[in-house]
Amino acid sequence: VNLPPQLQPVPDGTRARVRATFQARRIVFEPVAEFRAGEPMTFEFQLEATQAGNVAITAELSSDGLPQPLQASEQTEILGR
User: How far is Cα 40 from Cα 68, in angstroms, rounded to an integer?
Assistant: First the structure.
Protein backbone atom coordinates (compact mmCIF):
# COMPACT_ATOMS: atom_id res chain seq x y z
CA VAL A 1 0.00 0.00 0.00
CA ASN A 2 1.53 3.31 -1.11
CA LEU A 3 0.67 6.34 1.02
CA PRO A 4 0.74 10.05 0.20
CA PRO A 5 2.80 12.40 2.42
CA GLN A 6 -0.37 13.54 4.24
CA LEU A 7 -0.93 10.09 5.75
CA GLN A 8 1.16 7.86 7.98
CA PRO A 9 0.45 4.29 9.10
CA VAL A 10 -0.51 3.45 12.68
CA PRO A 11 1.39 0.18 13.31
CA ASP A 12 -0.95 -1.05 16.07
CA GLY A 13 -3.93 -0.54 13.71
CA THR A 14 -2.78 -3.12 11.14
CA ARG A 15 -4.46 -6.54 10.96
CA ALA A 16 -3.95 -9.29 8.40
CA ARG A 17 -3.29 -13.02 8.14
CA VAL A 18 0.36 -12.16 7.44
CA ARG A 19 2.83 -9.73 9.04
CA ALA A 20 3.15 -6.16 7.80
CA THR A 21 6.27 -4.01 7.65
CA PHE A 22 6.48 -0.26 7.25
CA GLN A 23 8.89 1.22 4.71
CA ALA A 24 8.82 5.02 4.49
CA ARG A 25 5.50 5.75 2.72
CA ARG A 26 4.57 2.07 2.21
CA ILE A 27 2.88 -0.74 4.11
CA VAL A 28 4.20 -4.08 2.84
CA PHE A 29 2.46 -7.33 3.75
CA GLU A 30 4.42 -10.59 3.68
CA PRO A 31 3.50 -13.04 0.90
CA VAL A 32 0.48 -15.27 1.45
CA ALA A 33 1.47 -18.94 1.14
CA GLU A 34 -1.83 -20.09 -0.35
CA PHE A 35 -4.81 -18.17 -1.70
CA ARG A 36 -7.72 -20.12 -3.20
CA ALA A 37 -10.16 -18.83 -5.79
CA GLY A 38 -13.23 -17.31 -4.16
CA GLU A 39 -11.60 -17.18 -0.73
CA PRO A 40 -11.94 -13.76 0.91
CA MET A 41 -8.82 -12.20 2.39
CA THR A 42 -8.80 -8.96 4.36
CA PHE A 43 -5.89 -6.60 4.99
CA GLU A 44 -6.76 -3.83 7.45
CA PHE A 45 -4.66 -0.81 8.29
CA GLN A 46 -5.22 2.41 10.18
CA LEU A 47 -3.82 5.74 9.04
CA GLU A 48 -3.23 9.05 10.74
CA ALA A 49 -3.56 12.32 8.83
CA THR A 50 -0.72 14.82 9.13
CA GLN A 51 -2.36 17.56 7.03
CA ALA A 52 -5.55 18.32 5.11
CA GLY A 53 -5.95 17.87 1.36
CA ASN A 54 -7.04 15.56 -1.45
CA VAL A 55 -5.02 12.36 -1.48
CA ALA A 56 -4.84 8.99 -3.23
CA ILE A 57 -3.99 5.68 -1.56
CA THR A 58 -2.76 2.99 -3.96
CA ALA A 59 -2.77 -0.74 -3.27
CA GLU A 60 -0.66 -3.12 -5.35
CA LEU A 61 -0.98 -6.90 -5.58
CA SER A 62 1.69 -9.09 -7.16
CA SER A 63 1.80 -12.81 -7.79
CA ASP A 64 4.00 -15.32 -9.60
CA GLY A 65 0.98 -15.96 -11.86
CA LEU A 66 0.52 -12.32 -12.92
CA PRO A 67 2.59 -10.77 -15.69
CA GLN A 68 2.55 -7.42 -13.84
CA PRO A 69 1.17 -6.22 -10.48
CA LEU A 70 -2.49 -5.21 -10.18
CA GLN A 71 -3.10 -1.72 -8.82
CA ALA A 72 -6.15 0.04 -7.39
CA SER A 73 -6.33 3.61 -6.10
CA GLU A 74 -8.83 5.34 -3.88
CA GLN A 75 -9.18 9.13 -3.62
CA THR A 76 -10.27 10.78 -0.39
CA GLU A 77 -10.31 14.25 1.11
CA ILE A 78 -8.70 14.89 4.48
CA LEU A 79 -10.48 17.73 6.25
CA GLY A 80 -8.74 20.18 8.58
CA ARG A 81 -9.64 20.47 12.24
Answer: 22
